[in-house]
Amino acid sequence: MLGINGGEAIILVLLALFIIGPERLPEYAEKLKEFVKAAKRYATGATEELKETLGPEIADVDWRRLDPRQYDPRTIVRQALLEDDEPARPAPQRPRSSLTRLAPGEPAPFDTEAT
Question: What is the first-listed, main subcellular location in coarse terms (predicted)?
């Protein structure tokens, strides 16, 4: 509730009682009630307008499945590492250039004496 805990809410109510005073409190309570009703009408109207705009397909959406708070990055990485991917393909062989380093004892590609 807006980051206010129960103790803070009680202090705010008591502070409002002292600042507003008991004679004007019913008037301000009525204004608060009208504000809450207007906010509820606005939220309901926005929801209905959204449903009307998006059409009947919006009712079929499973919002819990799309909630990003349910995804744990550790679980996602663990599942990705445990998945059986297709077997690794060998890297394509590139032709050697004359600048390629050779293993000891390996003949050079253009060494005619080794053949």
Answer: membrane
Give residue for tokens 């600048």. 99
Say how many Å lie between the first and final Cα of the chain, rounded: 84
Round to whole Å and give the CA distance between 109 and 111. Answer: 6
Measured at the alpha carbon of residue 72, what is the angle toward residues 67 and 76, in degrees to the nearest 5? 105
pTM exceeding 0.70: no
Contact 4, 12 (CB under 8 A): yes
Helix (H) or strand (E) holding 101, with range, is none
Spell out a b/e string for 29-39, using b for 16 or more CB atoms within 10 Å of the CB, else e.
eeeeeeeeeee
Q: Give me 43's structure tokens.
A: 């939220």
Neighbours of 16 (CB within 10 A): 14
